[in-house]
Specification:
Blueprint lengths: L1 H20 L14 E4 L5 E8 L5 E8 L2 H16 L14 H13 L6 H19 L9 H14 L1 H20 L29 H35 L13 H10 L1
Antiparallel strand pairs: 1-2, 2-3
Helix pairs in contact: 3-4, 4-6, 5-6
Length: about 270
């Protein structure tokens, strides 16, 4: 009894070693193993591979064609469709490109009801004009914190607003990748804080100061004196009426109540 159990354990150990040597290790979810081909009784070629589905189970997937090359091609198409099957979310992985992540993120942005249409258009424009020209062909695993930090520093040399908007878009996009298990961390989180440039005050020249001062004084005096004149005219008119005087209180020149209210609001 004990001898049989020992032989069974040794056979299992040898099988595990053989699988490890032949590359038949544990597959990650959404991946497949080596593709093998065999000739069927009808003369066609069958290609098959082990595929690990989203539920963790490993299943055999097959495809047949007239030649081995065609059978492998059909099998790869089948496996790709299986990976992108509905119900398992967006098929993103560390091997996906930033362009694929951007397309998936923009699709998610478009269906969100908490964002205004103007905000959605702004995200799309800034992604296409600021981020994708640099990161379009990068794979997600290649977008490191150092690369993003250097990119933002180069952007800040051109414009602080460009660097800030690029950081916002990259942060939102890679947070989306985190939610879909394409990455283990957001590379934007460790970048250096952007510093807004301090605008130095510029002193006016001696010949420009009088022109600016005179223009400001004229516009200021016009606004103030206009309101003061209107208030003074109303005050004098009311006093004249209360005293029974004529002068400036002719009926033809009196304003209606809406006009007086408009004039008082303008002052």
């Amino acid at each position: 009894m004990g001898r049989g159990d020992g032989s069974a354990r040794s056979r299992r150990r040898s099988r595990r070693k053989r699988d490890a040597v032949s590359g038949r290790g544990r597959l990650e979810i959404g991946t497949y193993g080596d593709i093998s081909t065999s000739r069927t009784s009808s003369g066609t070629v069958r290609a098959e591979a082990r595929y690990r589905d989203g539920d963790g189970a490993v299943r055999k997937v097959t495809a047949t064609a007239a030649t081995a090359k065609q059978a492998k091609h059909r099998l790869r198409q089948k496996l790709h469709q299986r990976n992108a099957a509905p119900g398992f979310g967006v098929a993103l992985s560390p091997e996906s490109t930033v362009a694929e992540l951007a397309a998936a993120w923009l699709e998610d942005v478009q269906v969100r009801s908490d964002l205004a249409p103007g905000t959605k258009d702004l995200y799309r424009r800034e992604l296409n004009s600021l981020v994708l020209p640099t990161f379009r062909t990068f794979r997600l695993r290649e977008v490191t914190t150092g690369r993003v930090d250097q990119f933002l520093k180069r952007q800040s040399l051109v414009s602080y607003a460009h660097a800030r908007h690029s950081r916002v878009v990259l942060n939102l996009m890679f947070n989306y990748a985190l939610r879909h298990d394409a990455l283990h961390r957001n590379p934007v989180a460790g970048t250096a804080r952007l510093k807004q440039p301090v605008n130095k005050p510029v002193a006016l020249s001696l010949w420009a100061a009088p022109f600016i001062r005179s223009g400001w004084s004229v516009s200021r005096r016009f606004r103030f004196d206009g309101c003061t004149a209107e208030r003074t005219r109303r005050a004098v008119g009311s006093r004249a009426r209360s005293a029974g005087g004529g002068g400036c209180t002719r009926p033809s020149s009196r304003r209606s109540r809406p006009a007086r209210a408009a004039a008082s609001r303008s002052c």
